[in-house]
Amino acid sequence: MPGMTTAALEPRAGRRCHNPLNSLHATHYFSPDLGREVGALGITHPKAVNFAVRAAALGPVGAGAVTATFYNYKHDLVARHVPAVWSIATPADVLAARTRAVDATLRRLLGEEAVASAEMAEAARLALRAAEACGRSARPLYSAHADLPVPDEPHLAYWHGATLLREHRGDGHLAVLMSAGLDGLEAMVTHTATGKGMTPKWVATTRGWTQDDWNAATARLRDRGLLDSTGELTERGVALREDIEQETDRLDRAPYEHLGPEGVARLTALGTTFAQAAVAAGAFPADLIGKR
Question: What is the pLDDT of residues 15-27, one digit of tens each?
Answer without folding.
Answer: 999 999 999 999 9
